[in-house]
Write a structure and sequence with these properties.
By secondary structure, the protein is of the alpha/beta class. The protein has helices at residues 45-64, 67-82, 85-96, 100-119, 159-170, 185-196, 211-220, 233-242, 268-280, 300-311, 331-346, 382-385, 401-409, 424-433, 466-471, and strands at residues 7-8, 11-13, 16-18, 25-30, 35-41, 127-129, 136-144, 147-151, 174-178, 204-206, 224-230, 249-253, 258-262, 290-296, 350-353, 372-377, 392-398, 413-414, 416-420, 438-441, 453-454, 456-457, 460-461, 463-464, 474-482. Helix 2 (67-82) packs antiparallel against helix 4, helix 3 (85-96) packs across helix 4 (100-119) and helix 4 packs parallel to helix 5.
Length: 484
């Protein structure tokens, strides 16, 4: 049988479509089938240098535009994108494996990120402080960094573009963006919109290639003034090392392992629903997902029984159809999930549900695992310690809030946590003492545009979203103005 020709997507550098100088290409697979459906250039450090230089050359003219004019380009971007909502949703399903409903949600989030940034153009503020002397003023101005390198993860390949590109551009920076090598296609399609609206050449450059080669080169370059990353803790550590010589500014949104604490006075049905949604959304591939349930012993049996009943209702299958969960994005990520399950079972946990590839011919190929629940888990087992980043829910029984707090805070990461309780003294204590960047109280997983998404400890520095996210793309310049 003749192999179907794969569609090729070129990179976008300085307003032009460019391939690797050596002609090298990388195939992009559909995670539901493991079949390649497109190719992108496998760029080298030469093309990465070109992208950086082009962004640097475009930076002054872009910075000198009034913010409201920069915002006009974002509004044009939005106008062009909304006409392609169906196209982008289907591309997201094809390359990332999320369900069609989740893909439409990601597209809508992308638009919201861009719109919020565009609307912030007239709210970029400095400050004036009283001087110690007469006829003198003290100003704090906010100015762009210059060339921003944006490195994106595979779990939200389109939304992360909007999340990073919007605030970077409206504040006057130029951008070199590198999508994850597993999910570059929506980024390439996004570039067509930049071309359509006539964005000045070099303001946004998108390059594909491996993180170890291209990503490291971009973050190590002296041209780069800020690196914004969404990825794993390991990736953040490597980028920190590669950018250290230039003391490059960093915004690292990294991984974590969110505790989902359910205390004896919780609304059990509400907690069950939230625990399931917050674990299996996007096949468990969300950095703030429920990674570890800590349920009080007084309600553990009822909670666990209801969780298993609810998880059995999750429909797994072709993400283009009416299902609740698709495949994992990468084969390597899926194998890691299977390894964690296997190790935890060997340590004495019980497989209450799932843990294997779904039955049926349609699941013969692709990165599949059933929604999984592990019980009889202790806090020192593998699934309770390692970030799973997949659809596996380990359940640990606790005897008190204090025990749950200790398990949560002993970690050297701290991205998010959940707590279900009706006791206001308990949740007020949690607000003060749980060492994470985001705390959900009687609330399932969510992320509002006007909020702030950041991690504590090894889960990162800096953050995204809201007014503080906009601020992250600006540095301060202090001006002492003598009027004599």
């Amino acid at each position: 049988m003749k192999q179907q020709q794969l569609e090729h997507y070129s990179c976008y550098i300085n307003g032009e479509w460019i391939d690797a100088l050596n002609g090298d290409k990388t195939e992009v697979e559909n995670p539901a089938t493991n079949c390649a459906f497109a190719t992108v250039p496998n760029m080298s450090t030469k093309e990465a240098e070109l992208a950086l230089v082009c962004a640097q050359n475009a930076e002054k003219d872009w910075r000198d535009l009034p913010a409201i004019q920069r915002a006009d380009y974002l509004f044009k971007m939005i106008e062009s994108l909304v006409k392609k909502r169906d196209l982008f949703a289907k591309l997201l399903v094809l390359e990332q494996g999320k369900t069609l409903a989740e893909a439409y949600g990601e597209f809508d989030d992308t638009i919201n990120y861009l719109r919020y940034s565009a609307e912030a153009a007239r709210r970029i503020e400095g400050q004036i402080f009283p001087s110690d002397n007469s006829d003198e003023q003290l100003w704090i101005q906010k100015v762009p960094y210059g060339v921003v390198v944006a490195l994106c993860a595979f779990n939200y390949p389109l939304a992360l573009i909007g999340r990073k590109l919007g605030p970077a551009l409206v504040t006057g920076n130029t951008v070199v963006l590198k999508p994850h090598e597993a999910t570059p296609i929506t980024a390439m399609e996004f570039c067509k919109t930049l071309d359509e609206i006539g964005l000045p050449a070099g303001v946004v450059n998108v390059i594909t290639g491996g993180g170890a080669k291209v990503g490291a080169y971009l973050s190590a370059s002296p041209i780069t003034k800020l690196v914004t990353v969404t990825g794993s803790i390991r990736a953040g550590q490597e980028i920190t090392r590669s950018s250290a010589d230039n003391i490059t500014a960093l915004s690292l949104e990294l991984g974590g392992k969110a505790s989902f604490i359910v205390l004896e006075d919780a609304d059990i049905d509400a907690a069950v629903e939230a625990a399931v949604i917050s674990r299996y959304a996007n096949c468990g591939q969300v950095c703030i997902c429920n990674e570890l349930v800590l349920v009080h012993e007084k309600i553990a049996d009822e909670f666990t029984r209801k969780v298993i009943e609810r998880v059995k209702q999750i429909r797994v299958g072709d993400p283009m159809s009416d299902v609740n969960m698709g495949p994992s994005v990468t084969q390597g990520g899926l194998q890691r999930v299977y390894d964690i399950v296997e190790k935890t079972l060997a340590e004495g946990a019980t497989l209450a549900l799932g843990g294997k590839r779904p039955d049926g011919e349609k699941f013969k190929h692709g990165n599949w695992i059933e929604p999984t629940v592990l019980t009889d888990v202790s806090a020192d087992m593998t699934a309770a310690k390692e970030e799973i980043f997949g659809p596996v829910m380990p359940i640990v029984t606790i005897s008190s809030y204090e025990q749950a707090l200790e398990i949560t805070n002993r970690r050297n990461d701290g991205l998010s946590a959940y707590i279900y309780t009706q006791n206001y003294k308990t949740f007020m204590h949690a607000i003060k003492n749980v060492e994470v960047g985001t705390l959900f109280i009687n609330k399932q997983i969510v992320g509002y545009i006007q909020g702030y998404h950041s991690g504590h400890k090894r889960s990162g520095v800096g953050g995204e979203d809201g007014i503080y996210g906009i601020e992250g793309y600006l540095q301060k310049r202090t001006v002492y103005l003598n009027c004599n």
